[in-house]
């Protein structure tokens, strides 16, 4: 999916994916990652999600990457803090205390730039990408994070009912991307709600990926 698609969505404020509160499945299942206090969580394709603030409130550090500078400026504004802004090759780094967000293309972020992370939280990242991009996304995520434990929120619905994003990524596909490195456990499956429920029926699923 072309970066211009997402830049246009942010400019036109077509951000129905943005939840104004921490994701319910994150809040419910985050403890399953069994992280030590002060762990560092990587949130790919983070938008301006309230989940980042919630993770910080749990006493963790957070690293994100997001294509849209608009999103990242609003993220820090809504947290009520002024980030330091630095160039990092083709990306920029916005940071304040325990929060570091790279602005730019996820696929251009390197493991050296990101630094080590203890867990990955993916909400509306894998499912934001078309099928042709998802294998590269999963491979690059593994190269960045070293297959640390992951909480992944996904959708499972009939893809012929509506076009993504968000796309349907059922358990069989999650197994294909992550089955070698992880044991995948479905920890919740609930009827799709929110804007997507006007386009299709299906389930929103929380997956716990534990290193195999
Ligand atoms: C569906 S939104 C989800 C945002 C956030 N995870 C949330 O839960 O609100 C997907 C986000 O990924 C960003 N994005 C898409 N492709 C990207 C890429 N290649 N690199 C970095 N961010 C990307 C978009 O700008 C958009 O904000």
Summarize the topology.
Elements: H1 3-11, H2 24-29, E1 40-44, H3 50-57, E2 61-66, H4 69-79, E3 84-88, E4 91-96, E5 99-103, H5 111-114, E6 119-123, H6 134-145, E7 150-157, H7 171-178, E8 182-191, E9 202-211
Parallel strand pairs: 1-2, 1-6, 2-5, 6-7
Antiparallel strand pairs: 3-4, 4-5, 7-9, 8-9
Bound molecules: S-adenosylmethionine.
Low-confidence stretches: none
Q: Determine the CATH superfamily.
A: Vaccinia Virus protein VP39
Order of strands across the biggest sheet?
3-4-5-2-1-6-7-9-8
- Secondary-structure-based class equals alpha/beta
Tally of helical runs: 7
Write down the domain tally: 1
- What share of the residues does DSSP label as strand, in percent? 25-35%
What's the pLDDT, averaged over the residues? 97
- Coarse morphology: globular
Q: Helix and strand succession?
A: HHEHEHEEEHEHEHEE
The helix content, as a percent range, equals 25-40%
CATH architecture: 3-Layer(aba) Sandwich
The major β-sheet equals: 9 strands, mixed
Oligomer: single chain
What's the total count of β strands? 9
What small molecules are bound in this structure? S-adenosylmethionine
**Which CATH top level class fits?**
Alpha Beta
- Rg, rounded, reads 16 Å
**N→C terminal distance:** 31 Å
CATH-defined fold name: Rossmann fold
């Amino acid at each position: 999916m072309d970066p211009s698609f997402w830049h246009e969505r942010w400019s036109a404020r077509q951000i129905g994916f943005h939840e104004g509160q921490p994701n319910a499945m994150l809040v419910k299942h985050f403890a399953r990652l069994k992280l030590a206090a002060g762990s560092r969580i990587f949130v790919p394709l983070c938008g301006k999600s309230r989940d980042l603030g919630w993770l910080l409130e749990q006493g963790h550090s957070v690293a994100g990457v997001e294509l849209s500078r608009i999103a990242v400026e609003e993220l820090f504004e809504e947290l009520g803090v002024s980030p330091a802004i630095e160039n990092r090759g083709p990306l920029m780094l916005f940071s304040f205390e325990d929060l570091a967000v790279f602005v730019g293309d996820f696929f251009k972020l390197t493991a050296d730039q990101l630094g080590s992370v203890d867990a990955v939280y993916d909400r509306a990242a894998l499912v934001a990408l078309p099928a042709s991009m998802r294998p590269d996304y999963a491979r690059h995520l593994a190269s960045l994070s070293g297959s640390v434990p992951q909480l992944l929120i996904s959708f499972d619905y009939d893809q012929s009912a509506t076009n993504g994003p968000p796309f349907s990524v059922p358990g069989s596909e999650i197994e294909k991307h992550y089955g070698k490195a992880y044991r995948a456990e479905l920890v919740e499956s609930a009827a799709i709600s929110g804007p997507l429920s006007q386009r299709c029926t299906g389930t929103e699923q929380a997956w716990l990926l534990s290193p195999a």
